[in-house]
């Protein structure tokens, strides 16, 4: 059983890697390159594993890609104050207001579902606010049915080979996409 699981997981990982939409990745590079040219900012959004990947990515995009980046889940005092005083649904939108989101800025969303009216509505509210402002939206998600996939300027949807492993494979590839994007952006700058 152990060997079968390992072999299957790695086989699925390779199959997913070979089936990623490279045009979507290229579009994402175009959007992020424009953000850098405009000396604008990237705001990373995600909950659970997506919050962790957003934190890691904010570090990478600042350091490697040289794009000013902020992860909106990195300030637990502010996050918990907003949850306590205003509710979970507005935590990202309120922070975008506090940071004075501008049209040349970008939301970068890491999510399995991408945000719906019933799950991760905080992503939906942030996306709607970004659309009002005219900011760009990119994302790496595990479903094509959420707000991120429907509204983003560029979105990589991680193919699902087995619903039991949708979340782990999506989160694996969110980190892979972080490293692919920042290193490609670094090379494009040279």
Give the gist of this structure.
The protein is an alpha/beta fold and 190 residues long. It is built from eight helices and five strands; from the N terminus they run ααβαβααβαβαβα.
Give structural notes.
With 190 residues, this protein is of the alpha/beta class. The mean pLDDT is 97. α6 links the parallel β3 (106-111) and β4. α5 (91-98) runs parallel beside α6. The protein has one domain (2-189): 3-Layer(aba) Sandwich (Rossmann fold), CATH 3.40.50. It is built from eight helices and five strands. It is 58% helix and 13% strand. Strands 2-1-3-4-5 form a five-stranded parallel beta sheet, with helices on both faces. It has helices at residues 2-19, 22-37, 49-63, 76-86, 91-98, 121-133, 147-151, 166-189; strands spanning 41-45, 68-71, 106-111, 136-141, 154-157.
Task: Round the mean pLDDT to the nearest integer and report it.
Answer: 97
- Which CATH C-level class is it? Alpha Beta
Q: Output the structural class.
A: alpha/beta
The fourth-level CATH homologous superfamily is: Glucose-6-phosphate isomerase like protein, domain 1
Shape: globular
Rg (CA only): 16 Å
Query: In the CATH hierarchy, what is the architecture at level 2?
Result: 3-Layer(aba) Sandwich
Percentage of residues in DSSP E strands:
5-15%
Question: Into how many domains do the coordinates divide?
Answer: 1
- Outline the low-pLDDT stretches: none
Distance between the termini: 48 Å
Q: Treating each run of at least 4 consecutive H or I residues as one helix, how many helices?
A: 8
Let me know the largest β-sheet: 5 strands, parallel
Name the helicity range.
55-70%
CATH topology: Rossmann fold
